Amino acid sequence: MGDADERYNAWFPRTPPRECGLRVVCFHGAGCSDTVYTISRVAGKMAHNPLLAWQQDEENDVQVLGVQLPGRDQRHSVPPFTSINDIVDAFVADCGHLFNTPYVLVGHSVGSWIAHGVAKKLMAQGYEPPLQLFVSAFPPPTIPAAKRPWNSSRVMSDSELQAEARAWGVNPVVFQQHVWSTYAPLFRADFRLFDEQRPMSSADAWLGSVPIHVTGASHDTRIMPHLLNGWRKLSSHCSVDTVDGGHLFVFDAPARASWFDMIIKGVDALTISRLTPQVLLHDVISSIVNHGTAPSIDRLARAHSETAETITTALCSLPGVVVHPLLASVVEVQPFSLVPSSVCIRSHISDATWWAPTLFAALGAAGTALAEQPLLSITCSVGGAEQQASIVVRHGQLCGVDQVDSDDGGDGGGVGDGDGEESGIGSRSSRLDAHGDAVQSSDVSDLEAEIQRALRLHDQTTTASVALPSSSSAPLALSSSSSSSSFGARRNSSAVTGQHHIDERGAVHGARRRHSEQHAPAAFTSSSSALSSSSYPSSARGSGGRGCIELSAAQLDRCYVYFLVDPVPVIDEQGREQEMRAHTPMAQESAVHHVDVGYGTTLLLSNKVAHAWREQHHMPSGRILPLVSAFELAKRCFAFAAVHDPQTVGSSGW
After folding, report:
1. Which fold has domain 3-150+201-274?
2. Which of 446, 518, 544, 650 could form a disulfide with 279 if both were Cys (CB 3.0 to 4.6 A apart)?
3. Strand runs labelled E in 37-130
């Protein structure tokens, strides 16, 4: 027997190693052992174990592994651990190779903290995250020491330790003298695991999009429901259930069976037949990038040999994915939107266009999922008003319009107004204004002055704050050919089947509409707007369409982006930079626990204008960042959207 086999047998003494499609790795609580999960007996009596029955069905291709910690049963001669961090380090060092297979982690009582720590350790070492984390009867590892509902046991006398164990619901048989002499050292070591574990910061404990399922016990006198709700702050997807029992409900046959059934149901909804969130997300984003639309639920179900219900549940578990509640169709998958928005991305090679829910998402899409596109332009509003600006992205990098020439493969039409004149991206080697004159560097400061005057005029002539156009607004018509389609991430065609549009009343239409005058953007129909194109110098107009500013390299460097939610990675108390993520935990208790960092992003044409705009519209919170910095942050935040070779993440079966 090799060293690897010996290490495996030490941690999993009752389950022989084998290949499988999914591993369910389970961690027991204090004073317990792996038998909580791996045998069909409870309190010395035969009892149904749904996990074992589930594993024994070969069609499921599942392996249930009960972890046995040192100091008990077959490992009674090995000194027990007194630190969760030491358990995590040793376990991952010995068993990390097992997690190259899709996996789920399960923990009861303090085993919940161990399972959470293993998930963080594996992710830090580059392993895929768990498909789901199941925890029970324990608060999150962020709970402050002063709020922990137990007493520190390190200096307790023997009688005090027994009283503490009774408060946890330990079986009275354990306190018989001949039994207690065996259990006392184990309890002292195991209780130290949670007594002496330092509280984690929310940033350190955050699991991102890993779904967390929390189970409490209805008669648990220590771990009350409000403590379990703290887990909601550690994931963008968290649910809480209850079983009928006390803290040690794993020794109550009906309660244990109920919990195991919850685990099986949760896993089946996410991962039957090796369906993983990573593969599903890859399929959806690839379809949007390559075909301009998200695949239907039915098509995904056929591709993965799953039910529509399973696919819908899996989609809803993904961060940034919105599924229509009535039609079960995808309407948003970050960084793309399948319904109208005020932000549009156009390829100047294929003439394909995509919607984005926010400017930040559009920057992320252009730098990740669409990074292989030779030449893109992002069209968005300036200051949340009717004025439009065009940001050029070439091969995944920001680029001034004056740095683009015909060698980049532009179509010559660029961002035009459809009048047939040769203008826009790809038609000049330098920036031209509406009259065909080259823009001089002095025009940049003139433009800033005009923007400031226009903002002041807008503030005087409107009674409401400037707001982003509603989602029912039509996109900016990028060219004459783009007017043939009015919504959704799409290719330009008169009709694309399977794509849905949600109007202001929530009605959904399967066929696309053509642009009409009533669907045209306000900037194209309003002659009285304070921010009409006439408010801008000639250098700001021209080939970008009526009032659309095509940003030069100099202007890109001067532009700023306002964020309602600060997107900069958190720096913890040790000075370590935390991982950038698409959803950020809020500092206070709220019904909404996570906010998209791209929400409310607004393009502003200079730092001076940005701060003036912020004051005008009473935006004391958030942050203003240079456009160049915002683009780099967006690429990090939406790195998950990069389209990889399907063979690296699994086969979509398409």
Report:
1. Rossmann fold (3.40.50)
2. 650
3. 41-42, 45-46, 62-67, 103-108
